[in-house]
Amino acid sequence: MADRIPLSSLSINWVPTSAQPSKRCKLSSSSSPPAPQPAPLPAPQPAPLPAPQPAPQTINLVATSAHVTGHLWQLVLALHNQQPQHPMFGERAAGKVRLPLRPVKRANEQSWELVCERLGGKVEEQMGARIPASGACWLSKVTSVQINRTSPGSSRVEVLATVIVCRLVAFLRRPCAETWDWLTEGEGTLTPFSHACNRGAQKNGDVGCINALEHGNFASKAENESHKQCGANSARALCPGHGPRRVKCIFTHEDGWPMPCRMVEDWVPKCKCARACYGARMADEEEDE
Predict the structure, then answer these.
(1) CB distance 151 to 137 below 8 Å
(2) pLDDT in tens, 107-138
(3) Is the Cβ–Cβ distance between 89 and 101 less than 8 Å?
(4) Backbone angles phi, psi at 247, to 5 degrees
C-alpha cells in the first residue's frame, strides 16, 4: 500500500474567480462576415404622359340676322358714302337696279335698307338664330331681289327689275364700272357668278347660299363650269382649284356650317390654303389689289 501524502504538505494557491481570465470570447464585428443587405429598390419612374390632344376648335357664333344684315348694310352704306349719286341709288324705274337708300315716303317702302334686313331675316329662318362668324354659307330661300312698285290708282304690283343677290353682293364688294356692267348686263350669261361652295341655287324657293363675301365671285364661264364639276364631296376632296388663281372649293355641310378642309397632307394636291379653304378667294383678291 502506498504511502499517503499528508495534506499539510500540499500547497494550493486559490485565485478568485473574478480575477481569472474569462474563457468566453466576445465576437467582434471584424471577426464575422457582414450581414447581407437588401438590394436597393429601383428609382420610381414617372408615368408616361398621355399623347397630346389637339386643342378643341371653338367656333365663334353670332346672331344670324344681325350678322348678315350688318355685313350687307355696311357694303351698301360704304358705296353710298363714297358715291351718293351712283345709279344704284334713287327712285325706282323700269329695268333699273335702283332703290333709295332708306324709306322715303313710308316705313315699309322698298329700299336698300329694308332689302338688307329682309335677307338677314330669311337666312335666320333657314339656319337658325346663330351661325359661325366666318366660313358658313348664308342659306336662304330668297336668292334674288325683285324691285317693284304698285301701279298708281290700283293695287297691281309691277316688277321693275330683278337682281340675283350673289351678283349684287359681288358688285358691292368691288364697286366699279366693270362690275356694275356685269351686274346689270341681264341674266349674267357673259360673266356668271361662280359659287365656290356649290350650294348656290339661282331661283327663289330653292335653298341656296347668298354669302358672296366668302363663297364666290364674278368669273368666266369656263371657271363656273369647272366649279360645277366639283359638286360631289368626293370630287372636291381632290379639288385642283379653278380659274387663273386656282381657287379651291369651299367645304360646308348641308346645313351650311363649315366642313374641315379635305385637302389632307397625304393626298394630292396638298392643301396650301392659309385658312383651310375658307375665304381663300377673298383673301387672294385683297392681296392682289
Answers:
(1) no
(2) 668 999 999 999 999 999 999 999 999 889 99
(3) yes
(4) -70, 125
